[in-house]
Structures are given as structure tokens and as C-alpha cells.
Amino acid sequence: MSCCGGKIKQELGIIPKVRKIKNIAEGFAKLAASRAGIDFKYAKERFAVCQSCENITWLKDVEFATWLNENKIEVLKNLESLETLSDLPIKPHRALTRKYCLKCKCNIMAKIHSKEEKCTEEKW
Ligand code: SF4
Asked: 34: closest CA among 24, 43, 25, 21?
């Protein structure tokens, strides 16, 4: 038994999840700034790669919410490594959809704006 009853180890395990939440928040904040006219060159370069990637899917909010609801326990347990979960459904571009990555499950427009995020397939 450790001196702290495993508390330090448990808290260290939370750090990647906190980092992921910070990245998600940063991504959406910078996406909003980008829509307001601020230029993020690295996001444009990343987007060009994502746009031609076979791992892009187009989901309506309700479709993503359904996947999230079906996988909520695994999502919470693996927030920092969502690529380990089964892929998102593959859907074509339609009206009222958003771009997601099949592999990391991220909203692509937010992910590309988060400086610390990396493509899980190492494409950028
Ligand atoms: S994050 Fe990577 S794997 Fe996902 S769509 Fe973009 S380039 Fe493809």
C-alpha cells in the first residue's frame, strides 16, 4: 500500500482528462474567434489535411448526441483517448451537419483550432 493510499496516482490520472477538456474549450473559443475574423494559420493548414482525409464524417447534432449517449461511460473513462473507442458512424455531407473525425471523435473545426491537439493518425 502506498503512503497516500493511491490518491496521488489517482489525481495524476485526472491530469490528461483536464488537459483534454482545456483543449476542447480552447478549440471552441478559437473557432469562435476565427469566425469573428481572427486568422489562425495553423488551423487552416490542418483543415486542408482533414478535408481530404478518409476519416471525416458529417453528423447532425442529434446523431452525435445519440452516439455520445450510447457511449457515455466509455467516453468519460477514455476522454483523453477517444480513438480507442469504436468509430463514429460514417455519414455523407448533408444540410445541418458538422464535421467530425471518425477516429478521435472530435469536432474537426474545434480540434484544428486547439494548438496542443494532434491528429491521432499523425497526419498533422
Ligand atoms: S484529425 Fe486526422 S484522422 Fe481525423 S479527419 Fe483530421 S486528418 Fe483525418
From this structure: 43
